[in-house]
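Journal club side-thread
Mid-discussion, someone asked how the predicted structure for our own chain would compare to the paper's figures. Pasting it here so we can look after the session.
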Amino acid sequence: MSADDVAELKAQWNDVLYDLESHNRTAWLALFDGRLAALDHNVLTLDFSDATKFSGAHEFERAQRPDFLVALAESVARVTGLTLTITTV
């Protein structure tokens, strides 16, 4: 994974989220406030540590659902062409 891939992913992150919303709105609701924390060896880590900034509680457990992480990886692939595994912290 090159620095260019990381920059491309960050530049296209909103497009990835729009794609996810159009394909799986429930996954989008669980994942949209995750922040790109790391991208290493085709593994993207999302950080939810600041998810409490909103007035309502974020159910972090939902963000760890394997089917939601797969849906996000599929959106990343459709938008950027990158094949990634998604993890959360």
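Post-session note: Strands lie at 35-40, 43-47, 85-88.
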